[in-house]
Amino acid sequence: MNQENLIKIKNLFVEYHTNKGILGGKKTIHAVNGVSLDIYKGEILAIAGESGCGKSTIAKTILRLEPAKSGEILVNGKNILTINKTELKEFRKHAQMVFQNPYASLNPKMKIIDILKEPLEINTNFSKSEIEKLIKEKIKLVGLDESCLELYPHEFSGGQRQRIAIARALVLSPEFILADEPVSALDVSIQAQVINLLKELKEKYNLTIILITHDMSVIQYLADRVAIMYLGEIVESGYTKDIFTSPLHPYTKALLSSVPQINKSTKKIILQGELPSPENLPKGCKFHTRCPRVMDKCKNCIPEEKGNSHKVKCFLYE
Ligand code: SF4
Question: Structure pTM?
Answer without folding.
Answer: 0.92
